[in-house]
Amino acid sequence: MVAVAARTSRVTGRRFRSVTLGALGLFGFALALEIAPRVGVVPIDFAPPTSQILVSLGELVGEASFWTALVDTLRTWALGLCIALVAGVVIGVLLGSLPFVRAATATTIEFLRPIPSVALIPLVIVLYGPTVKSTLVLVVYAAFWQVLIQVVHGVADVDPVARDTALAFRLSPWARVRYVVWPTSLPYVITGFRLAASVALILTITGELVIGSPGIGKEIDNAQQSNAVRTVYALIVVTGILGVLANLLTRFVERRVLSWHPSTRGEEVTPA
Amino acid sequence: ACGDSSDDTPAAGGAAAPDKVNAGVIAILDVAPIYLGKEKGFFSKRNIDLTLTTAQGGAAIVPAVLSGEYQFGFSNAVSLLLGKSNNAPLKVVCNGNNSTGVDDDFAGLYVKPDSGIASPKDLVGKTVAANTLKNIVDTSVRASVKKDGGDPSQVKFTELPFPEQVGALQAGRVDAIFVVEPFQQAALAAGMKKIASSYVDAAPNLTVAMYFTSTKLIGENPDLVKRFTEAMKESLAYADSHGDEVRDIIGTYTKIEEPVRAKMTLPKWPSEINTASIDALAQAAVTDGLLTQKPDVAGLLP
Amino acid sequence: MRLVSRVLLLIGLPVVLLATWWFGSAGSEDFYRPSLSSIMDAFVRTWTWDMFVQQVFPSLWRLLVGYVIAVALGVALGGLIGTYRSVRSLLEPVLEFLRAFPPPVLVPAAILLSGIGDRTKILVIVFGCVWPVLLNTIEGVRGRDEVLSDTCRSYGITGTLRLRHLVLRAASPQIMTGARQALPLAIILMVISEMMAANDGLGFTVLQFQRGFQIPEMWSGVLLLGVIGIVLSLLFRLAERSLLGWYHGQRAGQREW
Amino acid sequence: MLEVKNLHKVYDGHGRRVTAVGDLTFSVPEGQFACVVGPSGCGKTTLLRVLAGLLPATSGEVLVQRTPVTAPPPGLAVVFQEYGRSLFPWLRVRENVELPLKAQGMARSDRGALAAEALAAVGLSDAHGAYPWQLSGGMQQRVAIARAIAYQPRVLLMDEPFAAVDAQTRADLEDLVRSVWQRFGVTLLFVTHDIDEAVYLGQRVIVLSASPTTVAQDLTIDLPAERDQLTTRSDARFTELRGQVYAQIQKVKAPA
Amino acid sequence: MLEVKNLHKVYDGHGRRVTAVGDLTFSVPEGQFACVVGPSGCGKTTLLRVLAGLLPATSGEVLVQRTPVTAPPPGLAVVFQEYGRSLFPWLRVRENVELPLKAQGMARSDRGALAAEALAAVGLSDAHGAYPWQLSGGMQQRVAIARAIAYQPRVLLMDEPFAAVDAQTRADLEDLVRSVWQRFGVTLLFVTHDIDEAVYLGQRVIVLSASPTTVAQDLTIDLPAERDQLTTRSDARFTELRGQVYAQIQKVKAPA
Ligand SMILES: Nc1ncnc2c1ncn2[C@@H]1O[C@H](COP(=O)(O)OP(=O)(O)OP(=O)(O)O)[C@@H](O)[C@H]1O
Ligand SMILES: Nc1ncnc2c1ncn2[C@@H]1O[C@H](COP(=O)(O)OP(=O)(O)OP(=O)(O)O)[C@@H](O)[C@H]1O
Ligand SMILES: [Mg+2]
Ligand SMILES: [Mg+2]
């Protein structure tokens, strides 16, 4: 009982420390951005100090239209991310486990990957109109590659002895994926998810901005066209906060599903 | 809803459900009339249920109009000329907005007060920021330089979005900028000096932008196009004569702050297109090398 | 024989897809979806040597510089963050915050900081494609085998030697994954940076075509981007093969029948 | 039933070319317990991996249950020399043992019982809920053995399965393997470095030569079927056989 | 010189709490060769990891060369039980052996010579250019031993270093370790499961009890310093000592 309590307190202690440090990092960053315009490193009219941005943010939070935009953005983001993740993992595992298919599709993939989503804007608009659907297609297109490549590399990382073990015990292909390939690639998938999350967010915003589907991006465009510099930065800060929240979520999931992994076990490390 | 629609009378087929119309616009003051007209009911009384969607620019609006997602769109005149000359199936339906025609325009060419640039001809060998290259801005600025006696082909242009221009000018990254409202107010507030009103120099009472549709819609539903045009003309006329209402409506779809809105110079909104100015733009586009041959202006305009 | 089948494997699917596109789009009336044959015509017409010198090479140069800086920065920072838990706690939220910034809204800030020359564009490329390298490096460094770490510690292998022979090598498969991810991202960011404030470059040209309603020319530019992607990925694969020889040897073993 | 005919295996790659197995021919009849000894690096693990269908032969043929091996044959279990890496770090000990049974589609309760029994047999009942990396080397190795036993294979290949356990546990495990073999009539190929162990366990000891590997000696162990750590090991015949194997090993080692 | 005072180590995490070392006190004087035997999972590896400064003790103190251990002490080398994983897969065999020397700042030619010598001593001169994963288990283990020897440590900790090699090679390596010990006056702590080996090698055998671990017996091996595989092992005193250790092991194993 005592031991359990001690252990819990040690873990929470560490977590507390990491949260404090993280907050400290953000605070330092904000402080730097407060000081830089004030001492004239950047022109104050075009790069407002943190305090002014926060004031604008406070005003935004009071507007209903901001919250509708936020919800729109969140919906597109989450939906696009889910589709990209599922498609990326399924196709990635397939490609990773079937060398022939992988070789046959390699060129096509390398061709498609560097095509910028923004260059596809006219095409998606012709196909889906200036709607959320168009933005969603861009989001999925960009985020999918992030997941896919991570998964393909993760699948290739299976330990040969573990793989032989699974083969020797005649685990079915499905069981091999489920019990060997998937756990091995999970750390890669999580990194893929983190990359995809921010790419998806970026494209949600960009799509809204360029295409004009409703959301934070459209608000940013509007504010830019109106020369409302502080509002622009306040909205950018909102996207940043979304990014931080997404990361907190992944870290949380990671601690659950990767407790066995060397990167998270780390229990008995010398203090040195 | 094919009934005849004489001026000012609501559409005869009032019983029929109104036509849903989507129009793509840019969230700038130029499109205030369509917002105002919608609010005043000029569209609904012609049985048009108008939805306005803003986008960053032509990149999104033109494909949407051509694919039929939008029925109408707003675009600047030079873009439309470029489209026409590349056989884009689009056609202008109505005037958009014009320069004021006098020196106090809604857009202007600005330099730093201590730059030693006194008039447009001094821009020879210098760099000017334009929000998009090979478009109406550089064409107009060249016109200013030419009018002032300089060689327009010696002016360099660099692309820079409007919101970045004042900062870049202040920091000395460019020698001159061409900004529209509300950035013009920002330039003035920053103490920048205006050396020309290039839209005014490009042509008298220049038509800067217009509303357009696809040729397909004109073929399929000429009546709708006609009603939209009428409503639009009414809106333009109303906006042109009700400046205060315009300033208020701008506050609803942009984030321009109240004091700036009060000070801004508004464009002109005549209901008829200034065909001569479009012709002049087309000519200039050829001179400046934007186009190899003069587009079919008559085919573009209604 | 092996060579023939490998080449077939490499180009088989693309050929099928191109053929489908070619016949599927033949005689297309759609303004924004021209036929592949007209795109090909435009390609030949547009991408002359002069055009390469004026528009493509400057782009590629910025791409290269930006990519190299991004990889170096990502590995260096990732090694640091992956090794020290407190550094990670301190920096992670800030990095996640920055990571969520869309490049299109970032360009203005970059212009403020470094003007409108090549530097801004390189900055945008670095900022956009450092993340996959950084994240993968962090995870690679964190996930290294403990027995190897212990070996290093007990034999007094510390400092740069440890960095070179343990930290970076152990993470190198994952670093390579990140670098691979970053490559097409760099191309994308090259285009985006040139779409915002530029006077030359591939992205600029594609955008000009789009604005000028030269749609086949625009698609030919997109095609060119894809081709550049393929070429760079082939180069990357060569580099990877020599850097990760041990890894592929160990993983593949002699299993293939 | 195992048959190895003119097996030849060359490793080639990364600047190194090694003939791991020169020319190997032998067969193990159904239900036999055969031990393999040979110098380090002579190709024992390679042989086992070829038999298990994990590695293609360069030339020659290998049959398990009269079928040429091209993929892992059914009913065959392997205990790998790299026991640590053959356990899945993301599964707990019990799950590691149960996984092959689950893959066979065995019901949850049955495989639970089998796994518990196998873990008890190797003395690890306590550790069933631990992750492999929480165990000592010897414990990990015993988990790998438990997994193979719970699988109830027809053919069992074991690669130095007792290398990491202490003398007492080793003796217990030896008796365990013998009893499993007798109970289920498994065909068993057992690689070991311990000559006493080879003689004590098997019906037959195959001594391999150093690389390029061939069969240096094939010795039938004519000790009684009922064996016992104390009496068998002090048997005069045991000492004699053990001496023969030892002499042979030293002979094959000498030229290398 | 090693001192272990009231060492106590508890592993706690992932739903498992194990007292690996109960209360351990002993010391090994400078230059002594001490062997440690004990049942599987009794905490031998844990003890070595604490001594090497890789793991903090839960309580108690550990001194190497009179300095309390808080980080890996200088001049100390370890041969890990998980030999395979302790080799760098991206370095060739020679580079693996040379790396610690490089860390010490030794000149290239010197460390080349040392590495070559150490590899020759373990019989791996041929394999210097191979990657570890191209080697057999026993060969990998010998690379790990060569690395420790080339390092010329003042204190050497070895965790079942001969588990994966054949009997003949094992005998050779035993003599090699003894000669290295005699030549350089190394303080040596040697964990093994082979009782004969413990008695043959050491000046002293420490028998550990099963978990929670304590010293069950501390036996001085009063065999002559000059040892020899044939004569020493057939010595009557050898048989007697070995019997004592064996009896003790069986005693400590019984209650577990
Ligand atoms: N994956 C591999 N790639 C290249 N060579 C290999 C590979 N695996 C083994 N070898 C080589 O093949 C030979 C035989 O190796 P093998 O592992 O079969 O020996 P072994 O008899 O099991 O030895 P040990 O008793 O030490 O485990 C060795 O020389 C080894 O270096
Ligand atoms: N990383 C770890 N986390 C949790 N428990 C551990 C860990 N390492 C070892 N243990 C536990 O500590 C005990 C002692 O393990 P240790 O590895 O020291 O044994 P050992 O004497 O070396 O055994 P062997 O001879 O089998 O190698 C075991 O019960 C084991 O399960
Ligand atoms: Mg082997
Ligand atoms: Mg151990």
From TrEMBL, chain A:
Q: Which SUPFAM superfamilies match?
A: MetI-like
> Membrane-spanning regions, if any?
77-98, 119-144, 188-211, 232-253
Cellular component, GO annotation = plasma membrane
Cite the entry's keywords alphabetically. Cell membrane, Membrane, Transmembrane, Transmembrane helix, Transport
Localized where?
Answer: Cell membrane
Pfam families xref list:
BPD_transp_1
Q: Give yes or no: UniProt keyword Transmembrane.
A: yes
Look up the domain of life of the source.
Bacteria
Q: Which InterPro entries match?
A: MetI-like, MetI-like_sf
Residues annotated as coiled-coil are: none
Q: Does the keyword Cell membrane apply?
A: yes
Listed GO biological process terms: cellular response to sulfur starvation; transmembrane transport
Lipid bilayer topology: Multi-pass membrane protein
Entry similarity comment: Belongs to the binding-protein-dependent transport system permease family.
| Designated name of the protein | ABC-type nitrate/sulfonate/bicarbonate transport system, permease component
UniProtKB/TrEMBL annotation, chain C:
Q: Read off the Gene3D superfamilies from this record.
A: MetI-like (1.10.3720.10)
InterPro entries reported for this sequence: MetI-like, MetI-like_sf
Q: Which PROSITE patterns match?
A: ABC_TM1
The UniProt entry's GO CC annotations, sorted and at most eight, read: plasma membrane
Q: How does it sit in the membrane?
A: Multi-pass membrane protein
Show the stretches that span the lipid bilayer.
60-84, 182-198, 218-236
Q: Cellular location of this protein?
A: Cell membrane
Q: Which GO terms describe its biological process?
A: transmembrane transport
Identify the residues that the record assigns to the ABC transmembrane type-1 domain, covering every copy.
56-240
What's the main place this protein lives? membrane
Q: Give the UniProt keywords, A-Z.
A: Cell membrane, Membrane, Transmembrane, Transmembrane helix, Transport
Source organism superkingdom:
Bacteria
**Does the keyword RNA-binding belong to this entry?**
no
For whether the record's keyword set contains Secreted, the answer is no
Q: Which family does it belong to?
A: Belongs to the binding-protein-dependent transport system permease family.
What protein does this entry describe? ABC-type nitrate/sulfonate/bicarbonate transport system, permease component
From TrEMBL, chains D, E:
Give this protein's Gene Ontology molecular function annotations: ATP binding; ATP hydrolysis activity
Quote the PROSITE patterns the UniProt record gives: ABC_TRANSPORTER_1, ABC_TRANSPORTER_2
Report if keyword DNA-binding is assigned. no
Source species, domain of life? Bacteria
What's in the keyword line of the UniProt record? ATP-binding, Nucleotide-binding, Transport
Which residue range or ranges hold the ABC transporter domain?
2-235
Task: Look up keyword Mitochondrion and say if it applies.
Answer: no
Query: What is this protein's name?
Result: NitT/TauT family transport system ATP-binding protein
